[in-house]
Write a structure and sequence with these properties.
Elements lengths: L7 E9 L6 H10 L3 E10 L10 E3 L2 H13 L7 E4 L5 H17 L4 E4 L4 E2 L2 E2 L5 H9 L5 E2 L3 H8 L6 H13 L4 E7 L6 E7 L4 E7 L8 H15 L4 H26 L18 H5 L8 E3 L3
Helix pairs in contact: 1-7, 3-4, 5-6, 7-8
Length: 300
Amino acid sequence: MSSNSEPRVLSIQSHVVHGYVGNKSAVFPLQVLGFEVDAINTVQFSTHTGYKHIKGNVLQNDELEELIEGLILNGVDYYTHFLTGYSRSPDSLKQIAQIITKLRLKNPNLVYVCDPVMGDNGEMYVPEEILPAYRDVVVPLADILTPNQFEAELITGMPMKDLDGALKVIEALHNKGVKIVALSSTDLGDDKVMVALASNRDTCYKIEITKMDAQFTGTGDLFAALFLAWFHKSGSDLKMTLEKTIATMQGIVANTYNAARAKQPTGKIPVEYIELRLVQNKKIIEDPQINVNAVEIKRQ
């Protein structure tokens, strides 16, 4: 099958039985926006790792290989997009690189969207030996890269203390071969807002994101999926993609926060109250209303 009229995504990410991270955070929004999604789950856990007890199992590399082989043998390995998130080992990342090569045999125009999940707020939550595999093997294959600030700094080895630093980091990522760099969140705002950035080498846009006094999980996975979707649907319009992505996320996060605060009016919100409310916000996913515009940044 090689119909270009219908976007088809292969998404290789983590899976949780309860809650919304990894494929659980990415697949539903993509489907709502009209994408066929085939999902392979790198892990199957009861909940995300922010909960007290974690139970489940990990997909072994030979099992992943077998699943891909089955798709190829049955001739159902034509995809317009390939999306990857959390990987647990350098070997699994090298396997991702091999999968991209195989998928591009069937569709040379495959768009690879890579969310290089390694950590946040200055802390890595994957083994350190994953970094060289991302930096040297996977990132150069990516068409669209969606790191947060910490991950972008890790991959480039460069700090991002201000907007000028951010532009240097983005340029370094472009120089690795990445066509579109989208920084899902940075600390370049202030007490009230975070900043997201998106660049296609020629043009760079920034947009402000209102901060909430709560920690959300799965937002990076959601960002990557939405960015993939809107970049395709907008005909590669970078400004609109960033605006639609952030508008959707802001709507979902605000609704999730308000629902959680209704249950827990003061103090720290329990982790089980703050799972992203994707199903309840299907309309926002389908038709996000842009109320914050992206602003073009002039490069020096």
